[in-house]
Write a structure and sequence with these properties.
- The structure is a single chain.
- The protein is 26% helix and 27% strand.
- With 183 residues, it is an alpha+beta fold.
- It starts with 10 loop residues before the first helix and ends with a helix.
């Protein structure tokens, strides 16, 4: 069976695909393909990554990534590339995506083509992996859905984000008016 007709995908198969400008991920064998993000999406990713990175400079509990990274949790049928994630420092210091197993925070910024994947398929995968906090940023609705690994329903944030990672001296906070402000 060729890759183009595969019904069950692996991380290795996804890595072998040609770079065509789209994001390819696989969750429990299902291939997820999304086009390159819109400018507003990237602006929000940049702002939130910058704010998290600044926070983690004074509260060094992890390292924020705002670039695609191949997260697999050691499974062949999973390969996700969150928009933003915070990895534990000990795992980030290895400089090896395969070593990243314990994400402290995951953020997906919704795009028209990713709503179902981000809200359902990937959310369930992040919950199954025990990710303690998952934010789904809705740039059109000016809100953020906040999920923990145990939640059946999200808490919807419309004013500010707050994150209190273990080991930090103070919480991270960001007003949503700052995140969604015009250029």
């Amino acid at each position: 069976m060729g890759m183009a007709t595969a019904n069950y995908w692996t991380a290795e198969m996804v890595r072998a695909l040609p770079d065509d400008g789209t994001r390819h991920e696989v969750v429990y064998g299902e291939l997820l393909v999304t086009p390159a993000p819109r400018m507003l999406h990237q602006l929000v990713v940049h702002r939130l990554t910058f704010a998290l990175s600044a926070y983690l400079q004074s509260n060094p509990v992890g390292l924020a990534f705002g670039v695609p990274g191949d997260i697999t949790w050691g499974r062949e049928d999973v390969l996700v590339q969150p928009d933003i994630f915070v990895a534990r420092l000990d795992e980030a210091r290895t400089l090896d995506w395969e070593a990243i197993r314990h994400l402290l925070l995951v953020v997906e910024v919704l795009s028209p083509s990713s709503v179902k994947q981000d809200r359902f398929t990937k959310r369930r995968r992040y919950q199954d992996a025990g990710v303690p906090l998952y934010w789904i940023v809705d740039v059109e609705g000016y809100q953020v859905e906040q999920w923990t690994s145990a939640d059946a329903f999200p808490q919807v944030q419309r004013e500010r984000l707050r994150w209190e990672p273990a080991g930090a001296e103070s919480p991270f906070t960001l007003e949503l008016t700052e995140l969604f402000r015009p250029i």
